[in-house]
Write a structure and sequence with these properties.
Layout lengths: L1 E3 L1 E3 L2 E3 L3 E6 L6 E7 L2 H16 L7 H17 L1 H12 L3 H25 L4 E5 L5 E10 L2 E5 L5 H14 L3 E5 L6 H13 L6 E3 L8 H6 L6 E5 L2 H12 L5 E4 L4 E5 L5 H13 L9 E7 L3 H14 L18 H16 L3 E4 L19 E4 L6 H4 L6 E7 L2 H9 L6 E5 L3 H10 L4 E4 L18 E2 L4 H7 L1 E9 L1
Parallel strand pairs: 1-5, 8-9, 8-11, 9-10, 11-12, 13-14, 13-18, 14-17, 16-17, 18-19
Antiparallel strand pairs: 2-3, 4-5, 6-7, 7-21, 12-20, 15-16
Bound molecules: nicotinamide-adenine-dinucleotide and (2E,4E)-2-hydroxy-6-oxohexa-2,4-dienoic acid (6OH).
């Protein structure tokens, strides 16, 4: 059986305990993962600190950027390996990993390599009371050792989304990938070695959250900042852990995102777009739309169109290029999503399609599949309309006016993303301005430009990453004021 190892100071190291890495498509065991205990995490943090004080923060930006491009080259060279590992760990269709996850991992390194070369700093010429002047300019310094904690839904994409800007800014990192999807973080360590990244710059510790590597890392006194993507509740726990040492945090958390469909939308394009927004990655994307609001004149027709799309999605083996939807990540998550399917019925929903688990009659029956599911008829107060389910499911409700649609979309404690579907661009802009979220798409969804701010309001997160926002989080700015 294959072992997935921690990576510390340029070496692959074991822990004192192991846990199983499971393929969600059939429940089979892929590998044994070496769990990092307190001692292993301490060694990882110490190695990152040594590397910070050695070369990494001081090598010229141009060289650092060139090394980041080499990492991207390495990911591209091992494209098939990364796809295979990601598909086995997550159960996502091979077509999705090839189109989204692995290319984005390489792009994350390329974008931040280029951005750090171009990034300037603020400077101000200040008039002094005696009629003279002073010059203010900010200096960008590494923040230090960054603890990176990431989830299982887009493991490599979300890990590299943080590693790339952190390294670009001269930091060193200790990454703890999700216990469900450990493989690609360790594979990335091999790429780091081949690219010539100095030892200690990129470290990986495997394990769980509380009482394990995640908690050991976030509470470590030598970790200078924590960047986390995952559930809002976990974000709150991490915040409590880092409070006593006042570490800066960047949090990308959950969502209960709305799609607003106006009667004047391009119907076909919108059915396709909303279907993607609800079902991509089996609904396990923080940006997925779980609430769809449709203007009443096209409500029935739209629900029917979305139903046909859902029923046309092929559930199957993730390795099959004909598969549209893979399983959920784990038996536990499957049970959670199925319990929401039951709850929706208990809360009075009408089931448009789905609502259960499929039967394949083969080994996939040991996998964690659920049917793509659409409900209507729930009151806005229903738990299924309020709570993040994180599965291939949405509730569709009608609305009668623009004001009502805005009020419905904003009636949530989350605030990550919204999508608006209309051919009236004036209205598209107007409604977008009223969305209480961090990211609004008009006539598209999950269309990314990595220079743009990315994050959420309310329970959906703290801070923004992307472009200059990432560079600012992963840097300390020292303002220098010189009297002239
Ligand atoms: P999770 O919060 O359960 O786990 C995320 C990571 O945190 C894992 O590595 C886990 O081991 C670690 N962890 C758990 N408890 C911890 C603790 N007390 N201290 C330190 N680390 C701890 O999230 P998940 O189930 O892996 O991912 C799904 C969730 O992530 C959803 O809520 C989804 O919306 C959210 N998400 C948000 C974004 C975003 O950009 N906003 C992106 C992806 C996923
Ligand atoms: C959440 O599941 C998706 C997050 C996506 C990003 O962070 C990104 O940069 O595209």
């Amino acid at each position: 059986m294959k072992s997935i190892l921690n990576y510390i100071d340029g070496e692959f190291v074991r822990g004192k305990r192991e846990f199983a890495d499971v393929n969600p498509a059939d429940g089979s065991e892929i590998a044994q993962v070496e769990e990092a205990d307190q001692d292993v995490v301490d060694r990882a943090v110490a190695s990152a600190r040594r590397a910070l004080h050695a070369d990494w923060g001081r090598i010229p930006v141009r060289e650092r950027a060139a090394l980041l491009h080499k990492i991207a080259d390495g990911i591209e060279r091992r494209f098939d390996c990364f796809v295979k590992a990601e598909v086995a760990d997550t159960g996502k269709p091979v077509t999705l990993a090839s189109r989204l996850d692995v290319p984005r991992a390489a792009a994350n390194f390329r974008v931040f390599a280029d951005l750090i070369k171009l990034a300037g700093v603020e400077s101000f010429q200040t008039e002094t009371p005696d009629g003279k002047a002073a010059l203010n300019y900010a200096e960008r310094k590494p923040l230090g050792v960054i603890g990176i904690i990431t989830p299982w839904n887009l493991p490599l994409l979300l890990l590299t989304w943080k590693v790339a800007p952190a390294l670009a800014c001269g930091n060193t990192v200790v990454a703890k990938p999700s216990e469900e999807t450990p493989a690609t973080a360790t594979l990335l360590a091999e790429v780091m070695q081949e690219a010539g990244i100095p030892n200690g710059v990129y470290n990986v510790v495997h394990g769980f959250g509380p009482g394990s590597a995640g908690e050991f890392l976030t509470q470590h006194p030598d970790v200078n900042a924590v960047t986390f993507t995952g559930e809002s509740r976990t974000g709150a726990a991490i915040m409590r852990t880092v409070a006593s040492s006042v570490k800066p945090v960047s949090f990308e958390l959950g969502g209960k995102n709305a799609a607003i469909v106006f009667a004047d939308c391009d119907f076909e394009e919108t059915v396709n777009g909303v279907s993607e927004a609800v079902f991509m990655n089996t609904g396990q994307v923080c940006l997925c739309a779980e609430r769809v609001y449709v203007e009443r004149p096209i409500f029935e027709r739209f629900v029917d169109g979305l139903k046909k799309k859902a029923e046309g999605l092929r559930l199957g083996a993730p390795t099959d290029t004909a598969t549209d939807l893979g399983p959920l990540i784990s038996a536990q998550h499957r049970d959670k999503v199925l319990s929401y399917y039951q709850l929706a019925r208990d809360e009075g929903a009408a089931v448009v399609t789905g609502g259960g688990a499929p039967k394949f009659g083969n080994r996939l029956d040991q996998g964690f599949y659920v049917q793509p599911t659409i409900y209507t008829g729930l009151p806005e107060s229903a738990r299924c309309v309020k709570e993040e389910i994180f599965g291939p499911v949405c509730h569709v409700a009608p609305f009668d006016s623009e004001e009502e649609a805005v009020a419905l979309a904003n009636d949530t404690k989350y605030g990550l993303a919204a999508s608006i579907w209309t051919t009236n661009l004036k209205r598209g802009h107007r409604v977008a301005h009223k969305m209480n979220v961090g990211i609004t798409w008009v006539n598209c969804w999950f269309l990314r430009d990595l220079r743009t701010p990315f994050g959420g309001v309310g329970l959906s997160g703290i801070g923004r990453e992307g472009g200059i926002h990432s560079l600012n989080f992963y840097s300390e700015l020292n303002n220098i004021c010189v009297r002239l």
